[in-house]
Amino acid sequence: MRILDMTTFVALARHRHFGRAAQELHTTQPAISIRLAAMEQEFGCKLMHRTGRDFALTPEGERVLDTFRAILASYDNLKHELAGQTMHAAKVVRIGAIDSVSSTWMTPFVEALHETFPTLKIELTVEGTKSLVEGLNKGEFDVIFAVDPAIGDNFRSFTSCVLQMTWAGSPKIIDPDRIYSVDDLADMPIITFPKDTPPYRMIAPYFQDEQVLAGKLTSSNSLYSIINLLIDGFGVGAIPTVTIKRELKMGLLHPIRVTKRFPPMPIIGTYQATSETDLIRRVVEQARLSAALFCATVDPSMAWVD
User: Rounded to an integer, what distance in angstroms lies between the CA atom of residue 18 and that of residue 65?
Assistant: First the structure.
């Protein structure tokens, strides 16, 4: 059994796709298939089930995966020790996050990672939840922070923090001293994220009738654009309070007093269980710590850790 065969099996288990595994290993799909067949012949059992596009490890395959990952980790550590390197050899971690994370605790998170892993290369992508989940499913990310988790046996998820949502608007169009009912808000132009996104799915049930929003909705996939539209008085919107601290303090925006509170928004971290190396585990631990430290620096009603 070669290190190459073990690396191939781990990559195949991570991607659940022959083409993507071949691309990562700079080889061809037939070469991947030959290596898998050779391993199954050597072990005398099936390691993977493949039905159409469905791809799953057998119980024997799960045992082999755990063993291969441990062997490869030990092999990497041995190489680094013999080469006189630290255990933090140059590696890449691919992180995806939504706007609400990039504008709050992402910077101290990245700074902490660089301090702990001086040679670590971080590839950061800021996208909407839907794109991040799709990217994680395709193996394009190691860790994502979004409103929804990626679903599947090969993923692990955790709540990094919870952000309180606030209805806010410009003093040009709202009365800060007035208490607004749901019907009052429904009569105003609403600014939110596009339809079929998690934030929109939170908006629609709030009014109990999606048709109410049909003619009064302005959508944008950018948190920063939404904030600017709110400041300019184009409408009102429900966004994480902590992302508009500065605008609230300057009086550019005011929180809207409402009879029905908007539910808070959890920030869910998800990572590939099949790539749960020591590095990824420590990245996840640092994410939890960075989120908690950030929450400790702001009003506890704005952001907290469960």
Answer: 16
